[in-house]
């Protein structure tokens, strides 16, 4: 679910403020996909003017403080982020996330909310997750920077919003139930996480329109763990996980938007026996409905 949330942030490109007063708003969102997954999220944002000037590059300078929570059938999380916009085309951010998960079978398919990966060739099935979950927490701390561009800022016009955004993030993620080089699951993922530093990169190219279809775009994401401080080992030989997404955003009355995503991913052939070999394949179709409340 993390990637869906990141895409939502990436497509919410900034609007230069005309009012110097603080703005506060809340958002409620529902995410479903072609995978057996769903999520309900709520957040509240406080936008404070910061070092604003008279020119178009600094008139919208602000600090955005965001608090949120989400719940899915396999997990629950709380999060906090602070985003500083010192100039219109550049932002820096700091944030943290804390959550936990649980495990259970669903129509014979194991739902792996949280737990250490078990691999025992002499058992059937040979791999799985230890325990029922809720035996610890997963926490994440991250810092990122964004460069963004809107053609309409240089050549004003409703039909000239060709937008681009590049985001880089360094994060550290830790599961309190894992030790050393243990691999672990969270939120039904591939189960190859370690308590380690990772690099996340995304690039977006889109076109905004004054229509019912508000935005169409393509996005590329890359996530790669690079260092486990508990073992002192480099993890770069695992290679990056990459995702390609096609997105369309639909604007509805009453501050409601619906985003539709089609995603392809270089999935693991098998995380244990194939040495992290990957191949491109269809990943999912996701729908995110968001209601913004002031």
Write the layout of secondary structure elements.
Blueprint lengths: L1 H10 L11 E11 L4 E12 L12 E11 L2 E13 L2 E12 L1 E4 L2 E4 L1 E6 L7 E3 L8 E13 L10 E15 L8 E3 L9 E13 L4 E16 L4 E2 L6 E12 L3 E13 L9 E16 L1
Antiparallel strand pairs: 1-2, 1-18, 2-3, 3-4, 4-5, 5-10, 6-7, 8-9, 8-12, 10-11, 11-13, 13-14, 14-15, 14-16, 16-17, 17-18
What this model shows, in words?
Helices cover 3% and strands 61% of the residues. The protein is built from one helix and 18 strands.
Keywords:
single chain, mainly beta, three-stranded antiparallel beta sheet, 3% helix, disordered N terminus
Q: How is this structure best summarized?
A:
3% of the residues lie in helices and 61% in strands. The chain has 294 residues and is mainly beta.
- Percentage of helical residues? under 10%
Question: What is the approximate shape?
Answer: globular
Strand content: over 45%
Spans of at least 5 consecutive residues whose pLDDT stays below 50 are 1-19
Going across the major beta sheet, what is the strand order? Answer: 1-2-3-4-5-10-11-13-14-16-17-18
Secondary structure tally, helices:
1
